[in-house]
Structure formats: C-alpha cells, structure tokens
C-alpha cells in the first residue's frame, strides 16, 4: 500500500490545497493530510481549528474521503512519516520561487530518511496564484474570498477577523 503525506500549515485550507489533495489520491492508496504545529509562522487559527477545517472540507471528496486521514503533527516531518508508515511526501509547487525551498527541503528529508520519496505536484492553472497568506490578507481587509476557500472556511475567517477588528 502506498501511503503519502501532504503536509502543511493549512491556515486556512484553500481550493489550491484541495486540488493537490484530489490529484495526490490518483497516485497513492492512502493520503495523510498532516497539519503542522511548529511552522515558524503565526497562524490565524490554532492547530485544532485548522485540523477541523481540513476535515470538514474533505467531506466533499465523496467516496475518496475514506482514503484520507487528517492528523496534526509536531517535529520532523520524516519522523512523522515513519511513525505513520508513509513513504511518500507530496509537496505542491505554485511558482518557480517555491521550487528552490522545496528542493532543499526534499534533499534534506532524503538525507535524514533515504527511503522516503518526495513528489512535487504543480498547482493547476486555476489555483497557482492562491496562497493562504493572500487569502488571510484579503479576508482581513473585508474582501471576497469565496473563490479561494470553501464557504465553511470563509465563514470562519470572516468571524475571526471580525472579532479582531472590533
């Protein structure tokens, strides 16, 4: 059984993330969406909320949803992969600027755990410009994010920034 991990902060999960998840299911039997606790970023949502939002969005996958698990993790990704029996890491690439960082990360992970492979999936033409950072910025400024995230995520982001701005 091919088990892959798609790691990220998912703060918040976007339609770009969902596109990568759907496409990753074409090349793996089981997919773990790994929500990272220690990312060096300051997320809008805590790991519990981010994990919940990912789970809620994945319900829309239909029959494929039974092949996806969502788990929070802390520490080295390769250690988490080993603990869960995963031997593939899925990484999304939106732009050339993503490649250098992701390539270095893949090389480092390969050095730490040579039996774990990294597969890069390029963002689709419809989603390559979407980033969680931009989505949060647009939401913070009261813009329309409905084409970037699910209605559920949009509702939670609007509530979050509404509470902060009061």
Topology overview:
Elements: E1 3-8, H1 15-24, E2 30-36, H2 47-58, E3 68-73, H3 77-84, E4 88-93, H4 96-112, E5 117-122, H5 132-140, H6 151-165
Q: Summed up, what is this model?
A:
This protein has helices at residues 15-24, 47-58, 77-84, 96-112, 132-140, 151-165; strands at 3-8, 30-36, 68-73, 88-93, 117-122.
Walkthrough of the structure:
- This protein is α/β, with parallel strands linked by helices and 166 residues long.
- It is built from 6 helices and 5 strands.
- It has one domain (3-128): Rossmann fold.
- It has helices at 15-24, 47-58, 77-84, 96-112, 132-140, 151-165, and strands at residues 3-8, 30-36, 68-73, 88-93, 117-122.
- Strands 3-2-1-4-5 form a 5-stranded parallel sheet, sandwiched between helices.
- The longest helix has 17 residues, at 96-112.
- The radius of gyration is 16 Å and the shape is globular.
- The mean pLDDT is 94.
The backbone outline, from C-alpha atoms, is globular
Major pleated sheet: 5 strands, parallel
CATH superfamily label: HUPs
Structural class: alpha/beta
The helix count comes to: 6
CATH class wording? Alpha Beta
